[in-house]
Amino acid sequence: MENVAIEGISDLRVVTDMFAQVGCVEADNCILVVTNRDYGTGAEAGDIMTANATVAGVRGGGAVGGIAAGMVAGAINASVQEKVGAFNRSLDERQRIAFSNRKYAGFLVNVLSTGVGVIPLKNSGQILPKVKDLITDLEYFCFFSYDEMESIKLKKLPLHFSSVKLAICFKNTGELKVDTPWELPKKHKLIPYQEANFNKLAARLQTE
Fold first, then answer.
1. Which of the residue ranges 22-31, 84-93, 139-148, 195-204 would you say has the lowest mean pLDDT?
2. What is the pLDDT of residue 51?
3. 155 phi and psi, to 5 degrees?
């Protein structure tokens, strides 16, 4: 199957077929679109900025969230920088895709009983990640089993009522316990299946 833009991403049959192509479906799928809160915040894909603001932000809703909370982005702490560097070095190739802040503006995820399948989404070069601009990058599909995760939760985002953070924290990634900066809309006018699948996921996962 070829990559698709929003016309395909909005069609549950099309995205289910895409996940089937990579062997990531089961009887009860939970397919959702998330955007990347950290998109465009670093110099290289997979990097996390080393400011105190960012470390707070990636814990509470992405780098942008930390800055919006009033942290000073330029106040770099050597100890924090060292820990962030260790975190980046700990990521494998699949995890670097999940934390990419330059290449992928969002992700199409299928939350299964065995783990989470992820199809990365590009956005045609726009600066801000918007659902209407997303395009799948099926070649870089990856799968994360629950055995690899320390936790998977839905977290509330400051000043956000229509979306939450889908936060996956991986094991063996250092002291920071950074989780994925994925913003999950509770519903979206371009994604007809988003609301029903969000409610399904919320019923399964702990919300903080």
1. 84-93
2. 36
3. -120, 140
Nearest partner of 99 among 60, 158, 44, 30, judged by Cα: 44
- CA 115, 148, 22, 110 dihedral sign is positive
Query: Residues 131-178: pLDDT tens digits?
Result: 999 999 999 999 999 999 999 999 999 888 899 999 999 998 877 788
Rounded to the nearest 5°, which phi and psi values hold at 108?
Answer: -100, 120
Tokens describing residue 10: 């909005």
Identify the CA nearest to 55 among candidates 45, 46, 65: 65
Tokens coding 169: 């924290």
Q: Supply the DSSP symbol for 194.
A: H
Residue 50 binned pLDDT confidence (cut-offs 50, 70, 90): very low
Q: Which of 177, 146, 180 lies closest to 166, judged by CA?
A: 180
Beta pairing class for 142-145 and 149-156: unpaired
